[in-house]
Amino acid sequence: MYEIDKANCIEDAENGCLRPSDGGQYTKENALRILENGNGGCMREVKSGRQFGVSHIKANNDWLRKLLKIN
């Protein structure tokens, strides 16, 4: 499960200014979809703490899909 930190706008995402997670936990697929449909942000795996930056441009996240085995 993943928590997400969202950006208010694309400029905030590019500068790493993200709103902290509201505590909601999402599957990797849903976390990625939510961030791509918004302004991007960061998804953090709850168990391990590893995190990934997510672009609002879907094609820029192909590496992440491959790494996390998301179709």
Quick description:
This protein has 71 residues and is an alpha+beta fold. The chain is built from 3 helices and 4 strands; from the N terminus they run βαβαββα.
Word description of this protein:
With 71 residues, the protein is an alpha+beta fold. The protein is built from 3 helices and 4 strands, in the order E-H-E-H-E-E-H. It has helices at residues 10-15, 28-37, 62-68; strands spanning 2-7, 18-19, 41-45, 51-54. Strands 2-1-3-4 form a 4-stranded antiparallel beta sheet. A hairpin with a 5-residue loop joins strand 3 and strand 4 (51-54).
Given helix and strand content, the structural type is: alpha+beta
**End-to-end separation:** 17 Å
Order of helices and strands: EHEHEEH
Residue share in helix: 25-40%
Number of strand elements: 4
Low-confidence stretches: none
Shape: globular
Overall tally of domains: 1
Mean pLDDT: 96
The rounded Rg comes to 11 Å
Outline the biggest β-sheet.
4 strands, antiparallel
Fraction of residues in β-strands = 15-25%
Strand order of the largest sheet: 2-1-3-4
Provide a count of the helices: 3
For the structure shown, list the relevant keywords.
3 helices; single chain; 71 residues; alpha+beta
Secondary structure: elements and pairs:
Layout: E1 2-7, H1 10-15, E2 18-19, H2 28-37, E3 41-45, E4 51-54, H3 62-68
